[in-house]
Amino acid sequence: MVSHFPKCVPPSREGIEKRATQQRTSFLSLLLPFLLLAPAYCATHQTALDLDGNAANPLMSNSGHSVVLLFVDGFCPISGRYAPEIQRISREHQKDTRFYLVFPDKSETPVNIRKYLHDYGYSIAALRDPDHVLVKQAHAQITPEAAVFDAKGSLIYHGRIDNLYASFGHARSTPTTHELEDAIQAALAGRPPSSGGVAGVGCYISDLQ
Amino acid sequence: MKRLWALAGIGCLLAIATRSRLGQVVLAEATSDRKGSQQVTFNRDIAPIIFQSCARCHRPGESGPFSLLTYDDVKKHARQIEVVTRTHFMPPWLPESQALKFADESRLSDKQITTIKNWVEEGSLEGNPVDLPPQPKFVQDWQLGQPDLVLTAAKPFQLPPSGSDMYWNFIFPLPIDRTHWVKAVEIRPGEKRFVHHANILVDRMQNSRQREKEPGSGFEGMEIKIESETFDPDSHFLFWKPGTTPYVEPKGMALRLDKGTDLVLNVHLQPSGKPETIQPTIGIYFTDQPATKFPMLLQLQNDAKLDIPAGDKNFIVSDELTLPIDVDLLAIYPHAHYLGKDLRAMATLPDGSTKTLIRIPHWDLNWQAVYRYAEPVFLPKGTTVSMRYIYDNSDDNPLNPNDPPERVRGGNRAKDEMAHLWLQVLPRNFDPNGGDPRMALQEALARHNLRNNPADFEAHYNLGAMLLRQGKAGDAIPEYEAALRVRPEDTTANNALGAALLASGQPDRATAYLRTAAQGAPEYFDAHYNLGNALASAGDFPGAAEQFAAAVRIRPDDADAHANLGSALAELGQFAEAKAQFERALEINPSHALARENLQEMQGAASHP
User: 3-class secondary structure for B546-566?
Assistant: First the structure.
């Protein structure tokens, strides 16, 4: 499945502050624009956040690179077990591809995420996605799952990292397929990935709408 | 401008109304399916299921990756819970329902599974607070109170962050100076989230120490064998799996632990993605009531038939044993590796009736367990116990360790296969003056195994050990010789044959085998000790003294070894050294008769030259 991420840009912090100021000084005259903006504002003020609380949209700052989002959860043992493999893949493809760990759990805190990154030895960027903006763009359902966007921002793959897990609790001794790596290479080569995407085996993302 | 505002507002309202309408439709269908029953709520319908069947493991410090103790906990994982219960992955319980019930069955009923499904589909409602049952209370520390003896692994094991499952063995030397009887053992395997199961084996001969690179380091291995030179069959399952509460032995049954015994904890570990430190602890509860009932672990197995062609989806291995005495079956432990698919055990009674002892239609090594029956199962003499295991060595089996599939045979490694069925049986209706009734079981088992596989080293060895125990050294010798034809270099069998020859008055023949054993395993106490005896019997006192000295070096606290070394030194005229050895033996065991007599004799000789 191929889809495009939304073209709308989330308002910057400055933009929000400016609007608030205008609202205070001239409430009535700005009522309509504000309300007209409301639907769009509802959709775009929700963004992923970096660990300092700043809005972050990895798909808008990819500098022409492919982007891989890896959805993980701190409580999910299968997410944890994939840490060495995620780091191996990110190391080997970091030249041409940007990698982000995405934590979709609404209650996950930056403190916990930093500890998680430290414990598992992660060196790739991590984002919180409490409003599931990236979750929706990537069609993620489960942690761990991966989404690959090509340099144009098109979602060319979403699904499992590989087939290490056949089902809950049933891990192969080694995976025999490597869907994520194939999709990364496909994004670079401008070809469709070999796999259309198979759902990951792991933990369902909570409060998914 | 107002019109636009109104439209925007209506748009929002429409969206809300649509969502609400969809919700009503779903609810209506769910309600219709359940024929007008109430909506499912957490407080009334779900909490009792979760508290009863999930919370034991899903709470802080336990093996579950997240807690399930509150509405928020459960709602957060509602979708996950619905899927894992519907697919019977959770709670983990492999046997299918059968007439013979097991204690602590943790299977959810179909009705409970449907209730969870309905709850999730209806939006995971919390419900009325008054319906919420109290949270279950769990003992936070040692489950049975402070143990009498707590042992911690000497060195932790560093579990690597990645790779396939690992099996590590920790040796716990017992710091006891006399025999104790054990009524319960609590295994704390370390970080429970990474331990699938753990199993204690009683190593009365400290054999496993030979596998450690250095004392206390532990060693890797999925299956370990504990060998004993005397008839002293394993009798108890000492098993841990997630959610286990320590098993307290029933009245009259207790596990004997002697001075010098090691406990070996075999732990099945799964890498977590980061380095983990695993350092298990064992808590032991003693009783002052020695055992009056002596169960036995009876093992059916047919590994010799395990030669599974690559790609075979339905390879069948079976075995059966006819019981020579009446027994009560107390517990059962089926065991196969990653190719096991469908495991079944049956009993055919003398009247022709049959009982399913266990059936696991979807075997999963990760959730292997000992299953104790809710009530003992009486199996009269003449009952045939049978096992029938089906293996899948094809690509269809995702757990197949070989890609592509390869021919697989029986063996101890994870990539080998096993076809084992352990039964804990308690002899019943036997003549109390007729000797240990378990010997009949052991002999039947060994002879049965030899019929299956005439080259079965262990069967020959066990038969020899049992015959030697019965004082039939002459009958034991050919069994040990047969065992050595299978494994000529085996140090334990060489030592056993040497001991049997020594017991039958053939010290000269014994010496060669004992020397092979002692040279093959320089730290093997028994081989040096027996060789010392054989050499002394043959009049070679310098050689005997050398061997007893080696035995003393290996076990400095063994009174017999000191006394025998003293005797050999006395024969060589080294009286001062001999006296020191006798005194050391008496220091260890003040009632050591040989040491006392020899010491008195030497002192008498010294005072009456």
Answer: HHHHHHHHHCCCCHHHHHHHH
Asked if the structure places residue A1 within a domain, the reply is no
Q: Is residue B554 part of a domain?
A: no
- A and B: number of Cβ contacts within 8 A: 84
Tokens of A200: 């990951």
The residue assigned the tokens 């334990």 is B492
Does position A19 have pLDDT exceeding 90, yes or no? no
pTM of the model: 0.79
Output A172 or B128, whichever has higher pLDDT: B128
SS3 B207: helix
Q: Is residue A2 part of a domain?
A: no
Chain B positions in Cβ-Cβ contact with residue A75 (cut-off 8 Å) = 65-66
Quick: pLDDT tens for A88-142.
999 999 999 999 999 999 999 999 999 999 999 999 999 999 999 999 999 999 9
What value of ipTM does the predicted structure carry?
0.79
* Residue range(s) defining the domain that contains residue A35: 7-45
In a domain, B584, yes or no: no
Q: Which of B207, B343, B87, B290 is nearest to A166 (CA)?
A: B87
Whether residues B287 and B324 share a domain: the answer is no
pLDDT given at position A59: 86
Q: Which of B18, B66, B195, B413 to mutate to test the interface with A (most CBs of A within 10 A)?
A: B66
The answer to whether A75 contacts B66, with C-beta atoms less than 8 Å apart, is yes
**Same domain as B180, residue B200:** yes
**Do residues B369 and B330 make contact, with C-beta atoms less than 8 angstroms apart?**
no
Domain boundaries, position B342:
294-443
Q: Do A204 and B80 touch (CB under 8 A)?
A: yes
CB neighbourhood size of B179 (10 A) = 11
Q: For A177, which residue in chain B has the nearest alpha carbon? A: B403
Q: What are the pLDDT digits (tens) for B430-440?
A: 888 878 899 88
* Cβ of residue A199 closer than 8 Å to a chain B Cβ: no
